[in-house]
Amino acid sequence: MASLRVLILRARESAEYRGHSLARFTHNRKTQAYAYCETGCGMGAFVDTKPAPNGIDISGRAVAVNCPNREVTHAETPRTVRVVMESEVYGADTFGPYDSPEEAAQAIDRLKESAAALKDGVERRYTVEDAE
Ligand SMILES: [Zn+2]
User: Fold this and answer.
1) What is the pLDDT along the chain (132 residues), one digit of tens a residue?
2) Which of these, 7, 56, 54, 55, lies nearest to 35 by C-alpha position?
3) Is the separation of the CB atoms in 106 and 53 below 8 Å?
4) pTM for the whole thing?
5) CA–CA separation, 97 vs 103, rounded Å?
6) What is d(CA 132, CA 113) in angstroms, rounded to the nearest whole number?
7) For ion ligand 1, residues whose CB falls within 5 Å
């Protein structure tokens, strides 16, 4: 089961891939949080560490539909890559896919910022690998 923090990071990454810019996540309960896009497109992302049997842990239109208020330009012939974030405490988590190593590098910068904001003292390693 992924932690709420990891789900929020993943939701933020997916939404940014779609051109959205999610505001701070609001926590519903200890297991749920949500955030809406700051461009005012009305779309949001919802995360749940304990989804219903048929449910999913990350949902919402912001992770599925491109932001109508921001132009999304992805490379025509992408080399799709993933970012793997590893730590002793939380194990390995993958993010992406991204359309280029450059986008992955930007994602790592964002992940490092988000991870630093957690102030949990956990050391994380980031690697880029080809997505299948
Ligand atoms: Zn949006």
Assistant:
1) 678 999 999 999 999 989 999 999 999 888 999 999 999 999 999 999 998 888 889 999 999 999 999 877 665 555 788 999 999 988 999 998 888 888 899 999 999 998 888 888 899 999 998 886
2) 7
3) no
4) 0.60
5) 10
6) 27
7) 20, 37, 39, 41, 67
Distance 105 CA to ligand 1 centre (A): 22
Burial of 68 (0-12, 13-18, 19+ CB in 10 A): middle
Q: Which two tokens stand for residue 51?
A: 């989804």
Cα(21) to centroid of ligand 1, in Å? 6
- Centre of ligand 1 to C-alpha 35, Å, is 11
**Two tokens, residue 85:** 């974030």
In this structure, what DSSP letter does residue 62 have?
G
Residue 16 is which amino acid? E
CA of 88 to the centre of ligand 1 (A): 34
**Two structure tokens written together for 25:** 């996540």
